[in-house]
Amino acid sequence: IDIIKIGDRYMKIRKASQEDFLKVHKFTTQCPPLENYPEHVYKIILRYFGDYCFIAEENGQIIGFAMGIVPQSIPYTYFLWDIGIDPSYQRQEIGTAILREIENELEKLGFIRIEVTIDPINTSSQKLFEKMGYKNISGKERNTIKVHGNIAIQDYYSPGRHFMLYEKQIAKYDK
Question: Model's pTM, two decimal places?
Answer without folding.
Answer: 0.90
